[in-house]
Structure formats: structure tokens, C-alpha cells
Amino acid sequence: MTFIRSGLAALTAMSIGCSAAFAAPITIKFAHVVAASGHPKGEAVAYFKQLVDERLAGKVALEVYPSGSLYGDDKVLEAMQLGDVQMAAPSLAKFERFTKAFQIFDLPFLFRDTAHAEAFQASDAGRSILSEMEKAGFVGLDYWSLGMKQLSANRPLVSPDDAKGLKFRVQPADIIEAQMKALGANPQVLAYAEAYNALQSGVVDGAENPWANIWSAKFYEVQDGITETNHGAMGYVLVTSSEFWDGLPDDIRAELRAIIDEVTLRERDLAASMNAGARDKIAAAGSTIRELTPDQRQAWVTAMKPVWDAFEDEIGADLIAAASAASPE
Ligand code: LMR
């Protein structure tokens, strides 16, 4: 009897051991809308997967869905709340339905360059904005960078008057819509995946994008040229749901956190190098890049900056002042 009982106990212990050893890995579905390679976000997510495969093999399986193949940015946050996708990195402009906290990043001519935006993101004010999403059930894991936005259209854009009456594809953000209206242009909210066809077929005339997007989505092919306005800093939030993040075993959450810190540094380097590279490749492909003289650029500032007044109360004058004053160390 004793022998049978201890035999049973040993079998039970073995099966518990086996089920732990063979427990299914935790799946992280990561959905994004850009190309899997040739774009800083696409390549950063691929690096994220590489590190997860190396360091959390058998424990976490990261599945990457690029180019909007699982969800576009219009659906991905709702899908995350439902647990159908676990991570994404939509642009800051895409969070407005859930929080107005990131609106500051859409103000035209606030950030001089990506380093300026990154300095603000690293400040106390920038970090506290990131935690605003908790109210909507999201965890902002970090900011990722993209680059400065440029304007393009199917005709030359040199002075703000050139944009009058044109239709511009925009992301779903009140400030960006107001910025286009301030130019006398018509903003049209369209998903990223629809932008190329809309530009090609003339559904819209123009768009605003950083170099990496203009290159990787080939927008330059269907535009007259690109005007180097550098009128806004575009970046992302690496986001997950609170339910998923808080439900992870502590050791796995800690390892993922360490991996994300490493990937974030890589992503920012990729954003800097790939944007510069994309500008060169667009020029080499024969597309016209219009550089503005200081006076010409000032005319765009004068035309767009009045939108600050309309949103100052909503965003907060103190926050705008903190962002303006942020400076890289
Ligand atoms: C856009 O919709 O223009 C961007 O948010 C796409 C992206 O992820 O860079």
C-alpha cells in the first residue's frame, strides 16, 4: 500500500512538473500599421521579438502583425481593451478618443526637432502624461520616436497659400484638423493603409508625414514633391492593457520591462538614422525636396500657430510652457 501511495504521489508530482514544463507560452500579439522592415517602428518591433525569443523562449511568444494585417490604428485600442491584441505602438495622435493628454504633441511648431520632443517626454511632465492612459485601462510602456513631419501635395507647396483648398489626409486628431483648416485646406481623416491609394487617385491631394513614412509607404511616388517644413514631431506610445500587464507573472513582467527599455533605446536610434536615410533615398529617387528659407518657413508658422490659442485651455498653458522649455541634456 505504502509503495502504491508513494508511487502515486511520485506520478502526481511528475505530472505537475510536466505540465509546468509544457505550459503554453504567454502569447503577445503585437499589431502595427507600418512595414515590417525599412521603418524604425517595424524594425524595433522585429528586434523586440528577437530579444523575447532569446530571453523568454518557451515562456512568451511574441507574434508580430505589421502593415495593419491584424488591426488598423482605428481598431487596435478597442481590440486591446477586449484582450484580442496585447501590444501596439500607435502614434501619439491616435489616442484622442481615450485621452486628450497627448494633444500637446500635435501642436504645430512646438518642438524644434525630435531631440526636443524626447527631452520633454523624459521630463516629469512628459512621464506623467504617459500614465494618464491608466484611466482608460492602458499602460503606456514608453514613448517611441519617429521624426519631424513634412508636408506634401500633388502640386508645389512653398507658401501657405499654396495649400488653400487642397484636401489633406490626416490622422484622427482635432489639432491636426484645426491646423489644416488654419491653412484654408480640408482635412480628411483616413487610415494609414488607405493613404497611398487616396493620394494616387486624387481622393486627397496631400499629406503630412515624417521622411521614414514618406519613403517606406512610397508616398513620394504620388506627390509633386515634399516641402521640408519640420512643423511637428511625430512619435508613438508603446502600449498594452492594464489587465494584461498586471496579470503577468512578476518575473516575466520584469524581463519584458528590461527588454522594452533596451528596444526603446534602439528604436530612437533607428528613428534618427532611418529618417535621415529616407530623406536621402527620396531625393535620390528623383523626388523634389523643397527647402524653405527662414522667411518662407516663418510664413507657415504664422499661418498654423493660431491653433495654439484654440487649444491652450484644454492642454494647459503650463504644460505648453514646460514643453517649449524642455531641452536635451
Ligand atoms: C499615420 O497614420 O500617419 C501614422 O500614425 C502611421 C505610423 O504608425 O507611423
Question: Can you describe this structure?
Answer:
By secondary structure, this protein is an alpha/beta fold. It has one domain (19-325): D-Maltodextrin-Binding Protein, domain 2 (3-Layer(aba) Sandwich). The chain contains 13 helices and eleven strands. It has helices at 2-21, 40-55, 73-81, 114-122, 124-131, 174-182, 192-201, 211-216, 242-246, 250-284, 294-304, 307-315, 317-325; strands spanning 26-31, 60-65, 87-88, 138-148, 150-153, 167-170, 186-189, 206-209, 225-228, 233-241, 288-291. The model is unreliable at 1-20 (pLDDT under 50). The site of (2S)-2-hydroxybutanedioic acid (LMR) has 7 residues, from loops.
CATH class: Alpha Beta
Q: How many discrete structural domains?
A: 1
CATH architecture: 3-Layer(aba) Sandwich
User: Strand pairing plus helix content: what structural class?
Assistant: alpha/beta
Mean pLDDT, as a whole number?
Answer: 93
Biggest sheet layout = 6 strands, mixed
The number of helical segments is 13
**CATH fold-level assignment:** D-Maltodextrin-Binding Protein, domain 2
CATH homologous superfamily title: Bacterial extracellular solute-binding protein, family 7
Order of helices and strands, N to C?
Answer: HEHEHEHHEEEHEHEHEEHHEHHH
Using the alpha-carbon principal axes, give the shape. Answer: globular
The span between the termini is: 74 Å
